[in-house]
Write a structure and sequence with these properties.
Length: 214
């Protein structure tokens, strides 16, 4: 049997959007969109869609990192807003590292037993002090309420000394319930109570997975 499928302009937009979702959800390099083998596979799936006879390619690295990325971001923000609008939520803040081992301050929303990413800020030249982290927490709180319509009623961070100071500052800033992370507290207890002979191989295994991304 021979099947002919006409690709309308609207259908092409929908297909581009689906592929953008696939690239972003799987954290694939945008450069793959310019790979000849990838374009050949798209062309074989739906002839004429990917740059033959003067037609622009369906996907490019530039489009994925530009307009399509903006479209996916806007769609994700709309979905998040529909989920948390008018509901109580808790903000959490933690220190992460990016792929280049640069420090990142990450903020997440916790609403109805689910967690949603909110902000990821590189520290740059700033020192990750209690004052700096408090400033970011306040910005994240205001962003969550203004952009997504939820009500921030609490804040959670780890139990380091500067985070204790941060939580105290936020409690003075607004009437928030502030807590230290229970998982981090248990981890500190475990680190203190576990004998060195047991802890050493555990740390070795943990470092292996941290240093071997794949």
């Amino acid at each position: 049997a021979v099947y002919l499928i006409q690709t309308t302009a609207a259908e092409k937009i929908r297909i581009r959007s689906r592929w953008a979702d696939f690239f972003l959800k799987n954290r694939l390099s945008f450069r793959l969109a310019d790979d000849p083998a990838f374009r050949a596979a798209l062309e074989a799936t739906r002839p004429g869609i990917n740059g033959e006879n003067g037609i622009k390619p369906l996907l490019t690295r530039k489009a994925l990192s530009g307009t399509l990325l903006d479209e996916v971001e806007a769609r994700c923000k709309k979905i998040l807003s529909s989920i948390v609008m008018g509901k109580n939520a808790v903000l959490s803040q933690d220190g992460w590292s990016d792929a280049h081992q640069e420090p990142v301050i990450a903020a997440s929303l916790h609403c109805e037993v689910k967690t949603y990413p909110l902000d990821f800020e590189t520290t740059g030249a700033e020192t990750k002090s209690a004052t700096f982290c408090a400033q970011l927490a306040k910005q994240s709180t205001e962003k969550a309420e203004e952009q997504y319509g939820c009500v921030i009623i609490g804040f959670v961070s780890d139990s380091k000394n500067k985070m204790v100071k941060l939580r105290r500052e936020l409690a003075e800033w607004r009437n928030l319930m502030v807590h230290g992370c229970s998982a981090h507290a248990l981890n500190l207890v475990e680190s203190t109570a576990t004998p060195e002979a047991i802890m050493r191989p555990i740390v070795t295994i943990s470092k292996f997975f941290i240093n071997h991304h794949k």
